[in-house]
Amino acid sequence: MATAAGPSDTSVLNNTTAATPVPTNPHELALQSLCKQILKSRLFRGFYEERRYVDNVQGYRDIVSLHKSEKELNKLLKDIRDKLQMFYAQQNPDMWVGVTCGPLVGSKPTPGAMDTFIWAEIEDLAFGQYWFSIKSLRFRANEVVVKLKVVRSVDSEEMSEKYIKTSTVSTETAQADSTTTGTNTASAAVDGVAEKEVNLQDFANLFQQWYASFKQTIYDFMANDISKENLKGVIRFLGLVIVSLCSGALMAVKFLGIFAIRFMFEFSRLTHVLTPIILKIIEVFNKIVGGFYLLLAMIWKDAVVNRNQPKSAMPALEYNRPMYKSIQYDVRQRRSTGAADQQ
């Protein structure tokens, strides 16, 4: 439960809270780290409305509402609040999350503000509209509080200029509907100039937000991450890396030298063994190729050379009948002679 308190009520300004407990649950550690990473260095526009006493934490908290243009941050805050409430509903039911949604009891809604409120701790700040930067989330024994940093205030001149430009554009548009063509052209030119001025101002605000976020990130890094212990650790790590690289390079050179000597020795032995085999293989291929060319030469000689040459006429054998004498045998006389001999 929260009760209202005016800016002059300074009875409980310096709250004494218990020391931040160190979580031992790995799921809780992961959830806290994720929430911090999502919201860290977020720059947004909001309204510092009032200060109220919160019974759950026994202290005062400053209420900051979001501007209507901060829709993305509104979704992130609601999502983170739901996850934290769901987790701590079983772990720590008394845990109070410093992000609420819905209208505040006993106060009128601020024009141009959302119904999402951040309950933070802000010192010596007047009520009004400011640019805020989320430094981190702080998890206490019974509270989750958003740490805010005031970047700068939103000047009243800027807000009045925006309202004047908006009214001027609407007036010129109404007059353009009822005037002649020349008046329409002039009013359209004025509208174009006004729109260009608004767009340039928006770009200027965007670059200013980026610059403030970058500066805040560098500051947080220099303040939280750079310390004497971290510098010692970095120097020790770099020394170990350099020594490891040097020793590794020496061992690599030694290994390459031994490998080169072994390779040359084994390659010489391989060459000595394979030389006769290679010579024999070359000789076999030489004979095969030589025989093939010899075969082609013989075929060429028979097919081309001998075909074009005329064949020599060989002398014919003459049969001279008088040179040979025929002998006639008396077959009967021979048979009778043979029979007499047998008797």
UniProtKB/TrEMBL annotation:
The alphabetized UniProt keywords are: Membrane, Transmembrane, Transmembrane helix
- The portions of this protein that span the membrane are 237-265, 277-300
Name the domain of life this protein comes from.
Eukaryota
| Chain segments carrying region Disordered | 1-21
Among its keywords, does the record have Membrane?
A: yes
* Full protein name: Uncharacterized protein LOC101888022
